[in-house]
Amino acid sequence: MSNILIEANNISKVYDPDILLKRGKNIYALNNINFELQKGDFISIMGPSGSGKSTLLNCLSTLDQPTSGHIQIFGKHLSKLHKNDLCEFRFQKLGFVFQNHNLIPYLSIFDNIAAPLILGHQQNQEIEKRIHELAKMLEIEKILDKFPHECSGGECQRTAIARALVNQPEILFCDEPTGNLDSKNSHKLMTFLSQLNQQETTIVLVTHDSMIASYGKTMMYLYDGGIKTVIHRNQASQKQFLEQINEIIHRDTLLFEFDQTPSQIQSSSPQIEVQDQDIAFVSRQTVYMVMEGIKSDENILKNSTPLFIQGTQISYKNKRNDSIQFNLQDIQEIRMNLSAHFVNFGLLSQYVFHILLDCVSPKGTYQFKLKNRDDFIHFIHYFHQLNIPIDDPRHIEETYQKYPDDYSRQKYYQRTHKDLISYKS
């Protein structure tokens, strides 16, 4: 069974889209984000105000929908879930903790924690058992009969965490959970979250505080709606991880504001060594292939993850935003296949076909889903020049030669590959 809980492919978010182009451009809260969350992860999302941290958290947690791109959570496409199914899904799988604890003021601490279970029609005996277990863990047993206004900020936030955990979620989303707490209560809260993570609760946390971020396993730094830097703690101590985080924040904020353009910073950023070499083979990555001498489609490229081919060297970023490189000379075989995705255009709704490209190496298989259209035939020719064997059971190369334009190919695929599609009424 896969350990991947959330996959986000090229998601963007535009608030108040400029459909008629009156303003001349759209302002992206998120711009072409790839993200992957595995079971047991503890990811801290950082960035300056307005960088898109909370927007990303809201999209990943199903509270909001991206303007473009696709999100799969527990193997389900969010766009295909009915509103009622989505509510049930949140109740069963997700927990939420916010900066303002959002407790209901006229309910006791006990009833605030019990609210999700009551709405879920749980038995009273089970409700009491779970609440007392959590209250003991969070040291709020003595305030269960009090009301929120009678409790301290730390007690209210621990109550909010108990409420988030009472339905035993698999993923806990936290948006600035320590924002209103002093350092002592913040440490106590983060220690508890770390213990939860050790018990296999997966956590995604947004914070401005590098000390809070250092409790996690991965730090993801956002700027202007894009992921600029990702570092993994691996075997480092919390102090070493904190120093790495502070170095990234200090360098990026100063350079972005005063010295260089974003593209210069991205190229000058130091490469972070990642110990787990299996990161390249975790899941299928949606990419747009780019090679010198072959004209790129700029509209596709700006909303895609680029895969660069320089000679025989391949470089791209996976969904965890780790830099991956491999050499085509190490590839034993290339396998080509098709996938079909239903796109709803109203009366013009239809299935759209994409090419699946698997590069088999002694280390593992690099898996891609391509956004390339008419230009992919050039890459097939290049693979032939390198004498890489190609397995093409659906005769994709032959189809490109017979139907050079994408529209004709798509119609041909719909006629000849009906095993990939299943039309719904």
TrEMBL record:
Gene3D superfamilies: P-loop containing nucleotide triphosphate hydrolases. Residues 6-249 form the ABC transporter domain. One of its GO terms (molecular function) is ATP binding. CDD domains: ABC_MJ0796_LolCDE_FtsE (cd03255). Keywords: ATP-binding, Nucleotide-binding, Transport. The keyword ATP-binding applies. Belongs to the ABC transporter superfamily. This is ABC transporter.
